[in-house]
Design goal:
The chain is 40% helix and 16% strand. It has 551 residues and is α/β, with parallel strands linked by helices. A 7-stranded parallel sheet has the order 3-4-2-5-6-1-7, sandwiched between helices. A 6-stranded parallel sheet has the order 8-13-12-9-11-10, sandwiched between helices.
Length: 551
């Protein structure tokens, strides 16, 4: 099938052709015809499969059937600012021949800029839920004329605590609207929302039984946490890594790992919520052009990254939220390319990796780390290739130097060996160290399935935290904050998660332990998000504004 078979308007067909698209991806081939008929649809598709065009093209085509302009007729909801900007830009590019006005709306931008654009008239709004609800509360946006709604990366929006906001927004649009829901995973809460707000939707999936791409090779390595750096160096030395994303749990770990990798000779940069938008843009630019080979980030910081051509994903720390594994792996093997996802599994995380395997319906082979001898062999192969290249490009001056050294009585083999040693020094190869115990040996099984394993102490997709837990100290990498509202104010854990996530624009699953006393609520938040949480000053629980401060 080609795009010409999809009955697109000439203006859209011309744009698609100009962008170099010829054949639709599976999600585009399945979803576009359904949406063109006016039916609601649920599309299960991973990041990088072309889902933006899959909903944008039919949306633009249906809007173009009417001459009405300047009122909000289409709404696309996205979990993050960056994704909202990307989708808005893509829709502008697809519809530039249709004279459609598109506006991204997200937190962090001045309200007056967004309200002024709305007053001037827009046709399509691409928004994050939190900011859109704020505009609805201010009566600054009217959704009564919306004909088309898209929930993009719906599972991510739910994991960020936006469930109540989504219901508020959908309840502000006409029931006659057409709705499309796109998600990499379809947990029960997604199906519940679909059952309430979608009208007899047709469900399509391009993932089969496996929730991760077949073109992505997935392997696991049993590694003690102290050995993760050495394990990663060995894999970088032996894998054909052109560019990589490395995921860790905390912002502090991003800086530490990036620094250690740089010392080991790898061009690595941390990407965290502390970076300004200009700094983040600069890091991504250098990553795309190859100046930076490895980006180290958390799940939070990596949201909305628009990066293709990632050859490897390293799960240096396994995600507690199992669905986050799917999103991480979806960063590689995009647009039909192959990719590799490598996960470090500490001895206590076997239960977690088993749950991940059950969730993705695919085995992750337990694999021995490359030995020191294997790494040295790879290094020798690369050095030999460099020498061969230099032999072909050797100058007369190089040959004259060798001739002089031999004439002075040096053995040619000794001269060559010395040149090799200098080349190794110039490359700055990291000395290899043994990885302790049996952790570097081949595992007894070729997968992690082990019915006799004791379960890991990780959670089931809610950050592994006990809501309303006891007074135990906050976990490493977490900061405890105190909210001036508690049980006597009707505060419950679910209120804390949704309120903090929405107000601070952070994922609800990032929150740690929550302890609610009569008048105060204590919450553990990741260090990299503490400034964002504390910076809000206060949070609304019902009619009470609760001050927040560091506990």
């Amino acid at each position: 099938m080609t795009f010409s078979d999809l009955d697109l308007r000439p203006e859209l067909a011309e744009t698609v052709a100009a962008l170099g698209y010829e054949s639709p991806s599976p999600i585009q081939e399945d979803l576009i015809p359904i949406l063109l008929t006016g039916r609601d649809a649920i599309g299960q598709a991973r990041t990088g499969t072309g889902k933006t065009a899959a909903f944008s093209l039919p949306l633009l085509q249906k809007l173009a059937e009417s001459d009405v302009r300047g009122t909000v007729r289409a709404l696309v909801l996205c979990p993050t600012r960056e994704l909202a900007v990307q989708v808005s830009t893509a829709m502008f590019n697809y519809g530039k021949n249709l004279n459609m006005r598109t506006l991204p709306i997200y937190g962090g931008q001045a309200y007056h800029k967004q309200t002024r654009r709305l007053e001037q008239g827009v046709d399509i709004v691409v928004a994050t839920p939190g900011r859109l609800v704020d505009l609805l509360d201010r009566r600054a946006i009217d959704l009564s004329g919306v004909e088309f709604v898209v929930l993009d990366e719906a599972d991510e929006m739910l994991s960020m605590g936006f469930a109540d906001d989504l219901e508020t927004i959908l309840g502000s649009t006409p029931s006659s609207r057409q709705t499309a829901l796109l998600s990499a995973t379809l947990p029960g809460r997604i199906r519940q929302i679909a059952g309430t707000y979608l009208n007899n939707p047709e469900t399509i999936t391009t993932t089969g039984g496996d929730k991760t791409a077949q073109d992505v090779e997935q392997r696991g390595y049993v590694v003690h946490w102290r050995d993760k750096l050495q394990a990663m160096i060995r894999l970088l030395e032996t894998e054909d890594v052109t560019s990589a994303l490395a995921f860790v749990k905390t912002r502090a770990n991003t800086t530490q790992l990036a620094t250690e990798l740089t010392r080991a000779g790898w061009a690595a940069e941390p990407i965290s919520g502390e970076l300004s938008q200009a700094q983040r843009t600069d890091v991504l630019h250098r990553f795309r052009n190859g100046q930076v080979k490895i980006l180290v980030g958390t799940d939070v910081a990596a949201r909305g990254l628009d990066v293709d051509h990632v050859s490897h994903v390293f799960n240096v720390d396994l995600p507690i939220d199992i669905e986050a594994y799917v999103h991480r792996v979806g960063r590689t093997g995009r647009a039909g390319r192959s990719g590799t996802a490598l996960s470090f599994v500490t001895p206590g995380e076997r239960g977690l990796i088993e749950r991940i395997q059950r969730f993705i319906k695919r085995e992750i082979p337990a694999t021995p780390l490359p030995s020191i001898a294997e790494v040295e062999e790879k290094r020798a192969e690369r050095l030999a290739a460099r020498v061969q290249e230099q032999i072909e490009n050797a100058t007369d001056a190089d040959r004259a130097l060798v001739t002089r050294l031999v004439a002075e009585g040096h053995d040619p083999m000794t001269v060559a060996a010395a040149a090799f040693a200098i080349a190794r020094e110039d490359r700055g190869e990291t000395p290899l160290v043994e990885i302790g115990g049996q952790r570097h040996r081949s595992p007894r099984r070729d997968n992690f399935s082990n019915g006799n394993n004791r379960p890991s102490h990780h959670g089931n997709g809610h950050g592994g935290n006990t809501r309303g837990a006891g007074h135990g100290g906050n976990e490493p990498g977490m900061v405890r904050v105190a909210l001036a509202a508690g049980r006597m104010n009707g505060v419950e854990p679910r209120h804390v998660v949704s309120t903090v996530a929405r107000t601070a624009d952070i994922p609800g699953r990032a929150l740690g332990k929550i302890l609610i006393t009569d008048r105060t609520t204590f919450v553990d938040v990741p260090q990299e998000l503490a400034g964002q949480v504390l910076g809000q000053g206060e949070y609304r629980f019902g009619k009470r504004m609760a001050r927040v401060e560091k506990a």
